[in-house]
Each structure stands twice: as C-alpha cells, then as structure tokens.
Write a structure and sequence with these properties.
alpha+beta; globular; single chain; 3 helices; seven-stranded antiparallel β-sheet
C-alpha cells in the first residue's frame, strides 16, 4: 500500500493562514482612514479630488491613501469646527492675511450608503466672495499595485543590467464616484443606497434630485 503524502496538508493550511492574515491586515489598514472621525483624511487629499471651479468633469478620480496620508505632498495642519449637523467640519486654515480674500477648503461627512459609498459636503472659497459647494461621493477600497525590489546586477553580452523582482503591493485607495454642485441652502437624505438631494433657492423654490446607487 502506497503511504499517503501528509506534507501537503500543513502546507495547504499555511497558505490559508497567510492569506487570512493578509486580508485582515488590509482591513485593519483601511480602518485607519476616516471621513467621519479622527484621525481624519487630510482635506488636501479631498481638495485634490475636487474639480476646479474653472473646469468641468473629473480629472483626479483616485488617490493612494496608503502613501498619501502624512506624505510631504499633503503635509499640513488642519482644524475642525462646528457648522451644524452630526459631524465636524474639517478644514485647512486660511493662510491669506487679508480678510476680504478668504482662502479655505473643507469637508463634512454626511453619511454612508449600504454598499459603502461615503457622502461628504465640500466647501471651497478661493480668495473671493464666491464659494463653491458640492456633495462628493467617495469609496475606500482595497487595491493592488506592483513594486520592484531586491535589484541585482547581471553581466551579459558585455552589458550590465539591473534586474529587479516585481511583486504585488497592497494599498488602500480613496476613489471618487461623483461630485454634485449644490445651492447655499440644501439638505440630503440617505436611505439604503438612495440619495435624495434638495436644493432650496427660496421659500417656494426647491429642486429635488434622487440618485440610486444600488448598481455602483
């Protein structure tokens, strides 16, 4: 009778254990980035995702949180204050010394759909009296890129080549789903995967838009 090869079973369970630890590590990392509580995602990252007032459409649609939060590019202090609602307003302090030309960007968390899409309110005032107000829909997702490491020198045909090992690199990405302009007076209702946005322009002038995100 041929003996059974039992070495494959410990190896198989080791692979399952490593895979489980990897997924748990990614889940723990994604929980380090928050829109609704401290430590907050930097408003500079949100500002980079926001479309300029002078433009239309979407230019930047995703940012790698794993290597952006706390980086030199997005370095800087930000503050919080109460502007009403259930969550704090997170903003970059105004660096303009002239009070007539305020320069401030900030966001406030509004809620999350059942399928994991976060809704935030953003306010952008760039050195003048006009203020851009938007609702931005975002999602924090697990992603995988590649990295090159363990480079070695190889001589072949009188040429020296640098050979690197390519391996997968897990990362957490903040993805922009949609950005919608709103009036100065507005309200939003989130029910399941449905958003109801009402812009109020006057006592008898209202505009309501319903967005179904169940297929996103």
């Amino acid at each position: 009778m041929t003996p059974r090869n039992t070495t494959i079973f410990p190896f198989f369970f080791l692979i399952l254990l490593l895979s489980s630890c990897h997924q748990k590590g990614q889940a723990q990392e994604s929980q380090q980035y928050f829109l609704d509580k401290s430590p907050f995602i930097s408003p500079k990252i949100i500002q980079d995702l926001s479309t300029w007032i002078s433009d239309g459409g979407d230019q930047v649609i995703a940012i790698n949180l794993s290597e952006s939060q706390g980086s030199n590019r997005y370095f800087g202090n930000f503050l919080t204050r109460n502007i009403g609602g259930n969550y704090p307003y997170v903003y970059l302090p105004d660096t303009n010394k002239n009070p007539q030309f305020r320069n401030e960007f900030g966001f406030q968390f509004q809620g999350k759909t059942v399928n994991g899409i976060s809704v935030i309110y953003t306010r952008d005032q760039e050195g003048g009296s006009f203020t851009s107000r938007n609702l931005m829909l975002l999602r924090i997702i697990d992603d995988t890129g590649i990295s090159i490491s363990d480079s070695t020198l190889s001589e072949s045909d009188s040429a020296v080549r640098l050979i690197g090992v390519i391996k997968k690199s897990p990362r957490i990405v903040l993805q922009k789903i949609l950005e919608i302009g709103v009036a100065s007076d507005w309200n939003i209702k989130i029910e399941g995967n449905k958003l109801t946005i009402t812009d109020v322009y006057g006592p008898k002038d209202k505009e309501t838009e319903v967005i179904d995100l169940s297929q996103i």
